[in-house]
Amino acid sequence: MATAQLLDGKRTAQIIREELAKKIEEHYERTMLRPGLAVVLVGDDPASKIYVRNKHRASTQVGMDSRQIILPAHSTTSQVLETIEMLNQDPSIHGILLQLPVPRHIDAQVILRHLDPRKDVDGLTPTNMGRLMAGQSGLRPCTPLGIIELLDRYHVPLEGQRVVVIGRSQLVGRPLALMFVERNATVTIVHSKTPNAWDITREADIVVAAVGHAHLVQPNWIKPGATVIDVGINRTESGIVGDVDFDSVAAMASRITPVPGGIGPMTIAMLLSNTWQAFQETVGS
Ligand SMILES: Nc1nc2c(c(=O)[nH]1)N[C@@H](CN(C=O)c1ccc(C(=O)N[C@@H](CCC(=O)O)C(=O)O)cc1)CN2
């Protein structure tokens, strides 16, 4: 049985990180300046702690100055806002990220409204979301950006392609749909209230699953030869699995991303790339 080409996010992310490290070193030799990234974590969610540690390691490895700010779970929205305000004013910090999710009593939207859009390396402030909606340039959310970058690096055509995005989250589904539209694809979003979503995904040239439901996408959801992107990270007894039933869908698809080693590493690579962009826009190239 034919099997799909693997779109290797881990390898691609490594290449992007090496490219960035070179640019940062050259810039540093000329200016003695380095991009500074601050990651704010509120509370002690175990997965978030790992992601924040990985972001710290990745940003340090490419030559950025990395700051981790860990606030206790009982912090109030105003206490988190004070931290964001301090980072907004700090000229050595070019990128700020609020690790999500935050504890329930904290209003992430209020915090994002106060984050300087020039330092919003997650692309989640209303200003950067509005720019995306209006088709203007700006910092884009890391996971959707990583998906588009991975498809580009594998020369997967987007223009005129029918794309179905499964999931409508602020972090992935909604911005990703707009980013595919920017690239002249024809886009549909399906979600938990869509009846018979598989009838719609089966029409697509590219299917992106971003719902957080282990093995939701089965071969009968996929047109033979489609490209399948799996954003899901679901922790099960047998380890981390995606939203796509990998083995059976790989037999139908022409290209597929693995979990782990697909979109996750691309998310971190795009955070570094956005920080580099924010740095250049502030200090010049
Ligand atoms: N402020 C943000 N919060 C969150 C984001 C985000 O983009 N911005 N995304 C996710 C978590 N996330 C980054 O923050 C993230 C998740 C997973 C990975 C990753 O590399 N995963 C590995 C496997 C992970 C494991 O072994 O635990 C993989 O897929 O290969 C990177 C980043 C929610 N919060």
From TrEMBL:
<comment type="function">
    <text>Catalyzes the oxidation of 5,10-methylenetetrahydrofolate to 5,10-methenyltetrahydrofolate and then the hydrolysis of 5,10-methenyltetrahydrofolate to 10-formyltetrahydrofolate.</text>
</comment>
<dbReference type="GO" id="GO:0005829">
    <property type="term" value="C:cytosol"/>
</dbReference>
<dbReference type="GO" id="GO:0004488">
    <property type="term" value="F:methylenetetrahydrofolate dehydrogenase (NADP+) activity"/>
</dbReference>
<dbReference type="InterPro" id="IPR020630">
    <property type="entry name" value="THF_DH/CycHdrlase_cat_dom"/>
</dbReference>
<dbReference type="InterPro" id="IPR020631">
    <property type="entry name" value="THF_DH/CycHdrlase_NAD-bd_dom"/>
</dbReference>
<keyword id="KW-0554">One-carbon metabolism</keyword>
<comment type="pathway">
    <text>One-carbon metabolism; tetrahydrofolate interconversion.</text>
</comment>
<dbReference type="GO" id="GO:0004477">
    <property type="term" value="F:methenyltetrahydrofolate cyclohydrolase activity"/>
</dbReference>
<comment type="similarity">
    <text>Belongs to the tetrahydrofolate dehydrogenase/cyclohydrolase family.</text>
</comment>
<dbReference type="InterPro" id="IPR000672">
    <property type="entry name" value="THF_DH/CycHdrlase"/>
</dbReference>
<dbReference type="GO" id="GO:0000105">
    <property type="term" value="P:L-histidine biosynthetic process"/>
</dbReference>
<feature type="binding site">
    <location>
        <begin position="167"/>
        <end position="169"/>
    </location>
    <ligand>
        <name>NADP(+)</name>
    </ligand>
</feature>
<keyword id="KW-0368">Histidine biosynthesis</keyword>
<feature type="domain" description="Tetrahydrofolate dehydrogenase/cyclohydrolase catalytic">
    <location>
        <begin position="7"/>
        <end position="122"/>
    </location>
</feature>
<comment type="subunit">
    <text>Homodimer.</text>
</comment>
<dbReference type="Pfam" id="PF02882">
    <property type="entry name" value="THF_DHG_CYH_C"/>
</dbReference>
<keyword id="KW-0658">Purine biosynthesis</keyword>
<keyword id="KW-0028">Amino-acid biosynthesis</keyword>
<protein>
    <recommendedName>
        <fullName>Bifunctional protein FolD</fullName>
        <ecNumber>1.5.1.5</ecNumber>
        <ecNumber>3.5.4.9</ecNumber>
    </recommendedName>
</protein>
<keyword id="KW-0521">NADP</keyword>
<feature type="binding site">
    <location>
        <position position="233"/>
    </location>
    <ligand>
        <name>NADP(+)</name>
    </ligand>
</feature>
<feature type="domain" description="Tetrahydrofolate dehydrogenase/cyclohydrolase NAD(P)-binding">
    <location>
        <begin position="141"/>
        <end position="281"/>
    </location>
</feature>
<keyword id="KW-0511">Multifunctional enzyme</keyword>
<dbReference type="InterPro" id="IPR046346">
    <property type="entry name" value="Aminoacid_DH-like_N_sf"/>
</dbReference>
<dbReference type="GO" id="GO:0006164">
    <property type="term" value="P:purine nucleotide biosynthetic process"/>
</dbReference>
<keyword id="KW-0486">Methionine biosynthesis</keyword>
<dbReference type="GO" id="GO:0035999">
    <property type="term" value="P:tetrahydrofolate interconversion"/>
</dbReference>
<dbReference type="InterPro" id="IPR036291">
    <property type="entry name" value="NAD(P)-bd_dom_sf"/>
</dbReference>
<keyword id="KW-0560">Oxidoreductase</keyword>
<dbReference type="GO" id="GO:0009086">
    <property type="term" value="P:methionine biosynthetic process"/>
</dbReference>
<keyword id="KW-0378">Hydrolase</keyword>
<dbReference type="InterPro" id="IPR020867">
    <property type="entry name" value="THF_DH/CycHdrlase_CS"/>
</dbReference>
<dbReference type="Pfam" id="PF00763">
    <property type="entry name" value="THF_DHG_CYH"/>
</dbReference>
